[in-house]
Amino acid sequence: MNRISDLTRRAFLSRAAALSAIGAGAPLAMNLAAAGEAAAFDAGDYKALVCVFLYGGNDYANTVVPYDLANYDLYSAIRGGGSGRTRGGIALGRDELTATALTPVADQTLTDNQQYALAPEMTRMAGLFNAGKAAVQLNVGPLIVPVTLAQYNGSDRATYPLPPKLFSHNDQQSIWQSDGSEGATIGWGGRMGDLALSSNGNSSLTCISASGNAVYVSGATALQYGISTDGAIPIWSAKGWLWGSSQASDALRTLITQSSGNVLETEFAKVTKRSMDLETTVNGALSPVTLATAFPTTSLAKQLKIVARMIGGRAALGQKRQVFFVSLGGFDTHDGLMANHGGLVGQVSEAMGAFYDATVELGVADKVTAFTASDFGRTLASNGDGSDHGWGGHHFIVGGAVRGGQFYGTAPHVSLTSTDQVGQGRLLPSTAVDQMAATLARWFGVADSELSGVLPNIGHFATANMGYFA
User: Fold this and answer.
1) Which CATH architecture best describes the domain 6-11+39-232+293-460?
2) What is this structure's pTM?
3) Which of 18, 96, 245, 381 has the fewest Cβ atoms surrounding its Cβ within 10 A?
4) 295 CB-near residues (< 8 Å, 6+ apart)
5) pLDDT tens per residue, range 316-373
């Protein structure tokens, strides 16, 4: 993980022919812009990746639920289900799962002949899966190298290193998004953005977050652009009536955008001016984009709606490749799991369903792929009213280009003692985040030779293609 900078630099230097235009004495902003132009692939079409991050650690077992009788009974027994396969403890009742049972488009034989259903509130996601527009990646989580249970329990960390600070919220959020623990400044979405900058007419709109600051969309040269659910974020006091005076606003705008003899003040002024200019550009492109698709009024749905509108304005903005980030919190369900979790995953299902519909309306369903991610999965075992921090979990990939209606990876046993978990049903990932990310990156346009610069651990795994796309 500490070699990310070296690997990124190596990929950067492999494209160094364009770097001759960069002058050592040029201003910082010009150097960054030129560097961005040098490290890029040519994109003739449009593609966008959308990360839907579930903060807090999503409970995998009540999201993708064992449905066949044998494995459901194991799940219910471990989670304290009621007699007659009814809801109890932190187990869902089997009859609740009928409407969300998943039917793969092709025969698949999973571990212990498992069949799955989704949480009862996830009817839209189940419908997308059964229609072949969504897939499930089973048991994925952060890994540096493949690790067995014996190696996890062993002491040879030189050969079998583990991700740092397992089960820690902040660190695992960062590792999912960047391959580095808390404090990392560059994410793998941002590293893809670094490669895509010169494909876009406005490079500042390559990596966009509708959910505040997120390392996932921060690159070495690609800037993270923040957007609100209503559009570009304005500097109100510099565009309106500061203290009831337009002259005061004009004076403030001049002060915060003018050059000075101080290099830091000058760079700050450039950033501020760029933000103000982008406000006009972004809102101008968004203005004509209206969607007939009905979105829910939840926070996540509003974030995805503005992402859809940004995609709708791609031509006006001159964009060919974009990486987006949205999020929903509340998934740290140590208690109140049964009261709260269903509503949370229901929001995810409805929002992502509406977003998919919007991409169909915009004519870009096969050009946009959305996927979920989270700090970690949780324990299969109950702590009485919830589940505790885990490791691996199950995630969704949605889009018109996705080979949906299928499960990818290896289904874990429904057990507290099997070798694919490290205690209390904490899943030992059988698929690395790097493998999931590499599959998405290859679809996005990253060449195989560039993957190690985006995902430094990918060479440790048997495949960089999980098969989500044809």
Assistant:
1) 3-Layer(aba) Sandwich (3.40)
2) 0.89
3) 245
4) 301, 302, 304, 305, 351, 354, 355, 358
5) 999 999 999 999 999 999 999 999 999 999 999 999 999 999 999 999 999 999 999 9
